[in-house]
Amino acid sequence: MLFTYYEWNFNSEHRRHMAETSAKKTSIESLISRLEEITRTMETPDTGLERSIALYEEGIAIAEQCKKRLQQARAKIEVINPDTAPSRPEAGQPKGLFDLEP
Fold first, then answer.
1. Least CB-packed of 15, 64, 73, 102 within 10 Å?
2. Stated pTM of the model
3. What are the Cα distances from residue 5, in Å, to 9, 11, 56, 89?
4. What is the pLDDT along the chain (102 residues), one digit of tens a residue?
5. H or E element that contains 55
6. What ranges do the domains of the chain cover?
7. What is the 3-state secondary structure of 22-54?
């Protein structure tokens, strides 16, 4: 099935919007589980290009939602207990593996 650029762009924006809307209503554990499922599906040799692109777009939208939720959780924990707030690295020092700051 071939799409024009405009049809493909509309469909990809629609898929991204649907993934973001769905992600807002789902637990983070379910979101991570869905990301794992997407990864497994994309790793199979019989997944076509169009399907892979759609899955990739969905995965990116879900990953962004996970990142936002983890940042919100970190902020709540820092408010509740400021003593547990992670120290920020000095300039030039590498950030931690799980640091959510850009």
1. 102
2. 0.59
3. 6, 10, 18, 44
4. 455 555 656 666 666 666 666 656 789 999 999 999 999 999 999 999 999 999 999 999 999 999 999 999 999 998 888 887 666 655 555 565 555 555
5. helix 49-80
6. 28-82
7. HHHCCCHHHHHHHHHHHHHHHHCCCCCHHHHHH
